[in-house]
Amino acid sequence: MAPSLQVLGVGYISPQNQPILIRYFSGKKKDGLKFHYIAHTSLDVFEERKCYLGLLYAMDDFAVYGYITPLRVKIVLTIALTDNLVRDADVTMIFRALHMAYYHALANPFLRLDAPYDAVVDHTALLVQSKTQWKGFRRRVDEVARACGVNVPPDGEET
Amino acid sequence: MQANKVQLSYASNPQLSTSELWNQIKSGLEAQFPLRTLHWRSGTRTSIRTIQTLEVDLVPFEGVKGEGVSQIPLTLLDKPFFNVFIVTCEDNEAYKSTVKKQIKEWHSTVSTRKNQEWLIILVSRPDSRPTSGLLKMRGTVLDRIKADFNIDKRDRCSQLTLQEDMSSPRAWADIMSKVKEGVTSAFDSAVTQREDEIKRLEAQRQMPGWNFCTFFVLKESLAISFEGMNLLEDALIQYEELEASFAAVLNDNTSIWFGKFVDPSPKDDSLPLLSVTKKPYRDLILANTISVFDFRIYILAREAILLGKMGVPDKILRKVNYFLSILGGRLRSFQNELPEYFIESWTYSSALSAIESCQEWKSKDAESSQVTKFSAARGEILELARLQLDRLGVYLKYLPDNPPFSFSRLEDPNIGFSSGAITNKDLVKCLADANYFYNLYIKLSNQSIDSYVKAGRRKFALKLHGSLAALDMHRERLASALQVYTSLPAHYATHQWASLESYMRLQGINHSNEAHDDDGRAFVASAMVFLGSWVSDSRVELLEDVADLDTFIATLIRKVFETSESLAEDLTVQDNPVLETMIIESSPKCTINRDGYNIEVDIFNKLPCALNMGSLVLTLSGHESITLKFKSNACEVEPGHSKVELFCSTPLPGHYLPHSVEMRIGKLLLTQQLKPKESSKLSVLIRSKTRLRMLTLPVDANAFSIWVSQPKDVNIGKGAQLLVDVRTGRNTIQNARLRLSSSDISIDTSVGQTDASPLSFSKDGVELANVEKDLRLTFLLPYQNPQGRTSVKVVIDAEFTNEDEPTLTRTIKLVKTVTISQPIAVNVRDFFRGQSLFSSFTLSSVAAEHIRISSVDLQPYDETEESVKISRIAGGSESSVVISPAHPATFIFHVQRLREVKDSLQVSIRYRKLQEEIDHLLEKRPEQDSLETASRPGPLSFKNLVSEFKDRPPWLDLYIATGELLLPGDKAPLHSNENLGVLSDLGWRTFSIPVDLPQIDLLASTSIHVAENPFSTVPRAIGRKGNLFAGQPFTAVVSVNVSCYWSGREDAANRPYRMRFEVDEMIRDWLISGQKRGEFCAKDGTTHSVAITLMALRHGEIPMPKVNVMLLSSGEEPSQRSSTPLTLECYQVRGAEKLTILPRVGKTSFVLNVGPGSFSDTSFPEG
Q1: HEC-encoded secondary structure of B213-261
Q2: What is the distance, to the nearest Å, from the Cα of residue B681 to the centroid of all Cα atoms in its chain?
């Protein structure tokens, strides 16, 4: 992994621009708004760039990177802005891991239990429905963050 | 060390420089610059660089400095790349004696210089050309110069022909191409040399005594040279490489070449960021005293200038933004060396000054995409500046330390600051004046919003709007804050960004308590939506502000419903998921002992507390936009699922779709659309979840009902009527009013025919009063203007009250489609034979119906009159006939006229449809189980049977043939005997059509008969015909009889008619000789006879030739001639009779004379 990057937060956004998962690792509840804002505003930049992997924008103390999966799920990664050079390869590696986390979580056959029968094609319909209950996915994302050296509090114990 | 231009030195021999020509030439030369389209092929770069324009400085040769001795590396452009020597020379003699020497002197200096090219230009006069012809042998001056000075392959000598306009490019074309070539090659060798130097120096990095600043200056000289050559990209690459190696050097932690990291001078925080002249950077670098802070700013500023020249100001802003963010972060580790708020002030001032600088670079005619990009970058950098205000505000306690103000990290207040103060005027004012701060905050936010909007970044703008609302909230400007907070959720809702949506709503709800602008409508509406999103996902994020969510929700619910009670008007909330209704049965039941239906629905109350529901109304929609409303009484809805029974007072069976649900809680009206909404992705989920089903309301045999149909007896001759059938059902009807209307026909309700007394007809409709229960009333209403329609739609509006429930007025609105055409088509053909008339009626069914015909009668319209005698001669079997489109039936009547017929005749058909029979049989079929009767689905299932009729299923054939009915699914058939009994009370429909007695003016009957002998016209008696052989001629008599018996005209019988007969030639059968065609004058009852000779051409049964008769003139006076021509019908008496022609039996002899004088005899038949 790339321990040089300090991952602050991760966001998954569906092709219909609905949030799938917004995760942040500061451990402070009141940072939620900031990370929701980051994910939401990133959509504007995604729109500008069509398909782009890389720095979406930087603001004050964080930098936001974007990634679009082949099925147009957008992943937003927020990392702390430091003087160190950010190598694209490192960012790509984290994105790949996040992408894999998403696919593994999506492969869970029990996700479909809640979903309507006729929405088979649209895989994101599943996610929007069960966004907060989807513990397996959160765990996988947290694992990726831990591998990046982030101190992720165990689920459910954030203060 | 500013970028300068490429230099080009010039010199000339004194002869020229003193002449008046010189100025002309010099200005001509100057006019050729800037150079255009230079191609630089570099050995170290893969692609060819093209320089579009290159500015060139013309310097006198004497002014050029010699080889540099300075320690500081100069740029490559400090020395000229190109030297030009311009000479005039009259002739070879002059060249030899003086000019050559002058050139040589110049050349010896030039050729020793490194990385410089040269060119000798010989100025020649155009008129000198012809004279030079003599000298050609010895070569021109130019040739001589070339021979003397061109040392390698390259031609460094050129000729300039004097022209009137010396600035014309044509005169200089050759020279300029040589100049371009020279400049690039000189530049190339200079670059190569400098790059080698840089590489060498870089390689020594690890050696002691290496100095980054020296390296920097050397490399920068190359960058500036590139810039001077207008190779901006290459220049930028140099700086980027410098930046990278600078970062590497810093990482090595051997920053001995720099001063401190940051050495703040008094105004550092407010100086323009992108100015390279605000500090003597170069001197600082050379003196090794520059701080890292300044150094990085310097590199950034240089890069920004290059980017500005490249016309991409948006890139500058992005770079500056990134730079400020990073360097600001770095500065935080040196906080104690900086004045208080230095970082904020520096970031703020730098951001704003960068925008200002970029505004200058921004080209006016930029493309729209460029403008968008620039606006986006501008918005970002303005937001960065705004964030500094956030931070400052939190420090100064102008703003609360909460989101959205506390997004940026704050400094540790325990770390001290150095003495000194910030100098940005705006921020200094802010320190003292909170209001000034707020205004600045708002202004900056709005500027940023403007930029974002221009760039199409709506979501960024929304975020800033949110922060402005938060500011308003903090400043207790609740009204404006609330306004923003109520408008924001909708923007987030479009993408189902539930967390942000609920956050915004929560902000609004939390504070609308304090700011009641109206009676609380906005609050209730907003809170309902909030509750809606809360119930659909109770773990909504971003509600961390609320400590105890459950209590908060409970309080909120109470407050919402309390407020809703006091609302002035109803508040409709659509499709809120707080309460969800689901229809759990697919078929509502008939209410016992009452007209109407009951249905049970499931209400899912997702709120954690019970609700007092005033009423629940479920609307169903049927065809022809008929709606039914099911209502409930007031009830308490517990949390979770509960069942509520609804009642509909309208007894109107049929198929319905759920349309909507309306739930009333106080003044709050929750509506839920059950109809599927198309084209929305979300609706796919909703629809599939609720499983929209069709509801079937069963027929209640004991309920009030109205039917409209065609009457059983239809007489086309009389007016058209509709049969209305009202059944009162289980209740005594106190009063009822029926209105019938139709867009297709006009129904007259004022004149009705009925036997029932309690009916009164008027223009407004039909009224019934005090009708006993279980009564059936029928009445007929006339209508007009069907205009060829086969079916019409009749709308029936009925209102009625029962005796048992006098307060409840039930209304029924239904649309009935009534067939007004007959299912039978009748075709008539008349055949006249002498004084008899045979009428053939062919009955066929239209539309795929099977119809049983009981009888067909033809009689005079007035049955008492005995003017005709009619007897049925065909198709009149005793039992009935079933007709279908494929199987028509024919009935033939024999009509004889007894005396003058005045009235027309009438055909009456008694029939019924097989469908009616089967309906009736099924209705009357003995049921084993009474329960089955109740649950039988009513007449609708018969429709299904009817649709099967088309395919003619086997059971139908069985029924038609035997009368036994064995429907699919039935175990035992209904036997024919029983069926007949049951059907006897079904009755028949009658359908009467008036028909006129047909008339024909002239009836000609023709005949051909064989004559007794050739000299007689007497027909050969039957039995004495004798044998007729093929080829034997015989005499036949053609006779034409004309009759006016069936003529309707009075004087028809008395007049003569000119007629023509013609015997049809039948060339295969008969050879006809004699009068084949003839005209004759006929009168009523006369016969015209003509003898002809016939010869059969073959043997066999051969019909007689046909005789046609046509009318030539009627013999009427022209004045009397009626408009209608006379009709003539012609038939052949015994037309079907055939003659038997025998074959001729005989033998043929041939006599052959074998002797001399031979001849052959003709053959002759025997007999």
Answers
A1: HHHHHHHHHHHHHHHHCCCHHHHHHHHHHHHHHHHHHHHCCCHHHCCCC
A2: 15
Smallest CA–CA distance, residue A136 to chain B, in Å, is 16
Task: Give the number of other CB atoms < 10 A from CB of residue B329.
Answer: 18
Sheet of B1057-1063: strands edge to edge? B1077-1082, B1057-1063, B1107-1113
| Alpha-carbon distances, residue B556 vs B115, B254, B552, B562, B670 (angstroms) | 84, 63, 6, 10, 17
- Residue B1142, both tokens: 């025998």
User: Is domain A7-148 annotated with CATH 1.10.1090.10?
Assistant: no
ipTM of this model? 0.85
A114 touches chain B (CB under 8 A): no
CA-wise closest residue to B784 among B751, B759, B760: B751
Name the residue facing B459 among A16, A44, A117 (closest C-beta): A44
Residue among B139, B141, B174 nearest B156 (CA): B174
CB contact under 8 A, B688 and A118: yes
First to last CA, chain B: 149
Please choose, from the candidates B705, B899, B887, the residue with its C-alpha nearest in 3D space to the C-alpha of residue B810. B705
Residue B936, pLDDT above cutoff 60: no
Residue B778 pLDDT exceeds 50: yes
Report CB contact under 8 Å: A116, B689: yes
Question: Is pLDDT of A79 > 60?
Answer: yes
A112 touches chain B (CB under 8 A): no
Q: Which letter does DSSP use for residue B311 in this model?
A: T
Inter-chain residue contact B384 with A32, CB threshold 8 Å? no
Structural domains of chain B ordered from first start: 6-203 (3.40.50), 258-468 (no CATH), 476-569 (no CATH), 570-697 (2.60.40), 714-819 (2.60.40.2430), 824-911 (2.60.40.1230), 914-990 (no CATH), 1002-1114+1125-1142 (2.60.40.10)
**Sign of the torsion formed by the C-alpha atoms of A69, A75, A76 and A81:** negative
* Residue B1163 tokens, joined: 């053959």
pLDDT digits (tens, 9 = 90+) for B1065-1076: 888 888 888 888
pLDDT higher than threshold 90 for residue B438: yes
Model confidence at B686: pLDDT above 50 = no
Phi-psi region of B1109 (alpha: psi -120 to 50; beta: other; left: phi over 0): beta
Contact call for residues A5 and A140 (beta carbons, < 8 A): no
Which residues are within 8 A (CB) of B143 and not within 5 positions of it... i.e. 6 or more apart?
none
Cα B726 to Cα A105, B317, B741, B751: the distances in Å are: 66, 85, 16, 17
* Amino acid, single-letter form, for residue B572: T
Q: Which amino acid is at B1090?
A: V
The span from the CA of A32 to the CA of A24, in Å, is 7
The whole-angstrom separation of Cα B85 and Cα B889 is 124
Determine if residue A156 is left, alpha or beta; phi over 0 gives left, psi from -120 to 50 gives alpha, anything else beta: left
Mean of per-residue pLDDT scores for chain B: 80
Alpha carbon distance B237, B231 (integer Å)? 10
Q: Which of B296, B378, B499 to mutate to test the interface with A (most CBs of A within 10 A)?
A: B499
Question: Distance between CA atoms of B434 and A136, rounded to whole angstroms?
Answer: 49
- pTM beyond 0.80: no
Q: Confirm if B112 and B67 have CB atoms less than 8 A apart.
A: no
Q: Looking at the complex, report in whole angstroms how far the Cα of residue B408 sits from the nearest Cα belonging to chain A.
A: 7
Q: Do A44 and B460 touch (CB under 8 A)?
A: yes
Q: Is B523 exposed, middle or buried (0-12, 13-18, 19+ CB in 10 A)?
A: buried
DSSP B1109-1166: EEEEE----TTT--SSPPPEEEEETTTT-EEEEEPPP------B--SSS--BPPP---
3-state secondary structure of B708: strand
